[in-house]
Amino acid sequence: MRSVIDKSLLRELPKVDEIMKHHRIARLLEIHPRPVVVDGVRGALDFYRKAILNGHYTGNPEELNELVLEKSLALVAAETRFNLRRVINATGVVLHTNLGRALLSKSARHAVDAVTSAYCNLEINLDTGKRGSRYEPVEELLTRLTGAEAALVVNNNASAVLLALGTLARGKEVIVSRGQLVEIGGSFRIPEVMEQSGATLVEVGATNKTHPADYRKGITENTALLLHVHTSNYRIVGFTRETSVEELVEIGRESGIPVMSDLGSGFLVDLARYGLPKEPSVQETVAAGADVVTFSGDKLLGGPQAGIIVGKRQYIEKMKKNPLTRAVRINKFTVAALEATLREYFDHDNVLNKIPTLRMLTESTDVILQRAGELAAKLKSKLTAGVEVKIVQGSSQVGGGSMPTAELPTYLVSCVTESLSVDELAIQLRGAEPAVVARVQDGQYQLDLRTVQAEEVDLLAEVMAGVLNSAEVSRL
Ligand SMILES: *Cc1c(COP(=O)(O)O)cnc(C)c1O
After folding, report:
1. Among 95, 139, 245, 297, which has the minimal tally of Cβ within 10 Å of its Cβ?
2. Domain L-seryl-tRNA selenium transferase N-terminal spans what residues (predicted)?
3. Whole-angstrom Cα distance, residue 285 to residue 33?
């Protein structure tokens, strides 16, 4: 290593203007603003000026031009890279909350584009020319699909629960089973939401068993609501007894107290036929007599982030008048995407194909295996030696705190390379463009093809080959 500081090297550094004339910089200027590119070039020159003055630069003088250019490109790329970026989800977790949960259907994406690239009738009734409601486009669809009298949509299900409790039980008591005091990721806990809403939680029963008699004993003149929470992200198994929504409705009728069911991952299509656990649908819960039912728009429904509230008109109308509704109101992207998603449900024969979440959850293992084979073949044709690629069996998850015990059989492409540890491979692929997130399991890097879209296979192979081949080169 050269340790003498050779200041004469500074004279070899190119000028900003010279680098700006390079054809690779010209290409950057077509997509990025000039000041950003100039800043990148200045940053690169600064970097090498310091390296020379510290005596850290050990290369040849004639390499400097090329190095400054490469550094400039890298700095501009880092500066202009979006913070929120596309990810290829190879985890096999269909509703991956950290990866944005549900993918929108094609028609939902088009609907968002249509109402955001032009003005829309968000709050105007085009027949009368008078003020309209932003909820109208989805209200009627929701009541038709669920059988409920009325509907309201807010930002997410957490706010739906908060709004319902705050409207129906503020300053009063709400009875909940001890077995249903759920915590959902991101610190949404039923007791805490209850406190925020101004309602008082009355816990009844035991963790594993709550009988109808426990609810009856808990009722006082201050009871405003009987709350049933679907324990969507865990199961209590063994010696158990849960009081059903039907039973709660019966108790509610005896005492004139409304019943609310927080379904969490509410769905409209029964997936039990496809090997998924039998769970109560929104329609079944409404038919069971629940007065208020809340569920997420971006869990099993497969739409945009939203909190959907359906139920008896008198309760929904009261919620609409609560000032909190204004604070948690949905925007036009949500209305557009939700309307399009709901419309897919009227096409019974095609809904499973049209809504990506439902398609991924019901995808046959044959189709997944075929996609795995395609990825493995593409990888093998692109990769230099030293990488072992094979197909293994495993299981995917529903995710989003839904159906935690469901194990969906799947096929994974497993990669092991001598040039990178599996953890390093995972880091490099997360930093790639687009980012790839998969599983590190059994000392292998495993890609679950259930959540990789058919049209992503080529791109995924290309990104992986880029990372694996450059690791191989730097090892040699
Ligand atoms: C997921 C979930 C929520 C929160 O829904 P978000 O749409 O994520 O706000 C509330 N309750 C239950 C039971 C859930 O599963």
Report:
1. 139
2. 10-49
3. 55
**How far apart are the C-alpha atoms of 245 and 260, rounded to whole Å?**
9
Q: Which of 351, 355, 340, 339 is nearest to 139 (CA)?
A: 339
Question: What domains are defined for the chain?
Answer: 8-80 (no CATH), 87-97+360-475 (3.90.1150.110), 106-354 (3.40.640.10)
- DSSP codes, 275-286: TPPP---HHHHH
Of 203, 201, 199, 191, give the one whose Cα is nearest residue 166: 199
DSSP annotation string for 431-449: TSSSEEE-EEETTEEEEET
Query: Does residue 158's CB lie within 6 angstroms of at least one atom of ligand 1?
Result: yes
CA distance 142 to 294: 12
Distance set, CA 79 to CA 35, 40, 41, 74, 456 (Å): 12, 8, 12, 9, 26
Q: Give the distance from CA 94 to its chain's centroid.
A: 9
Nearest CA among 413, 373, 421, 409 for reference residue 390: 413
Model pLDDT for residues 409-453, shown as the tens digit of each residue: 999 999 998 889 999 999 999 999 999 999 999 899 999 999 999
Residue 268 φ/ψ, nearest 5 degrees: -110, -15
Count of residues making up the chain: 476
Tell which one of 96, 159, 232, 261 to mutate to probe ligand 1, the residue whose CB is within 8 A of the most ligand atoms: 232
Tens of pLDDT, residues 263-278: 998 899 988 888 888 8
Which atom of ligand 1 lies at the shortest distance from residue 307's CA?
7
| CA of residue 9 to ligand 1 center, whole Å | 61
Residue recorded with tokens 């090329």: 66
Task: Name the residue among 452, 445, 443, 382 with its Cα closest to residue 413.
Answer: 445
Nearest-CA residue for ligand 1 atom 15 is 264
Decide: pTM greater than 0.90.
yes
- pLDDT tens digits, 91-122: 999 999 999 999 999 999 999 999 999 999 99
How would residue 476 be classed by pLDDT, with cut points 50, 70 and 90? low
Q: How much is the CA Rg of the chain, to the nearest whole Å?
A: 28
DSSP classification of residue 124: B
Q: Would you say the CB of residue 333 lies under 6 angstroms from ligand 1?
A: no
Token couple for 304: 């945009």
